[in-house]
Amino acid sequence: MKNMETLPSAREIFGLNVRKARRLKEISQEELAFQAGISRTYLSQVEGGTRNISVDHMEALANALEIALQKLLDPALFVMTSVHLED
User: Fold this and answer.
1) Which residue ranges does the record assign to the HTH cro/C1-type domain (predicted)?
2) 17-75, pLDDT tens digit by residue?
3) Structure-derived torsion over alpha carbons of residues 5, 78, 86, 52, reported in degrees to the nearest 10
């Protein structure tokens, strides 16, 4: 993530929110990746904000997490849940 004065990119926000949602659901990267039809390595890179992701894969992850795609792009979701979960 960038320094504290700049907002994270949309890719980073999405990845952080996927990680937070996955942890709230208490499922592993392997299980989420299987449910979304992607590899665990790819999911790890998405969660880390280092991998570009297609809209199709974004939708697959949102469906697997049972959360609206727009929520996974919402910077406020990360802020709200980051108080409750450790990285």
Assistant:
1) 18-72
2) 999 999 999 999 999 999 999 999 999 999 999 999 999 999 999 999 999 999 999 98
3) -80
Contacts with 64 (C-beta within 8 Å, 6 or more apart), sequence order: 32, 35, 36
Q: How far apart are CA 60 and CA 49, in angstroms?
A: 17
Q: Which residue has the tokens 């280092």?
A: 50
Q: Which CATH class is domain 10-74?
A: mainly alpha
pTM of the model: 0.82
Closest CA to 24 of 75, 71, 65, 70: 65
Locate the domains of the chain by residue range: 10-74
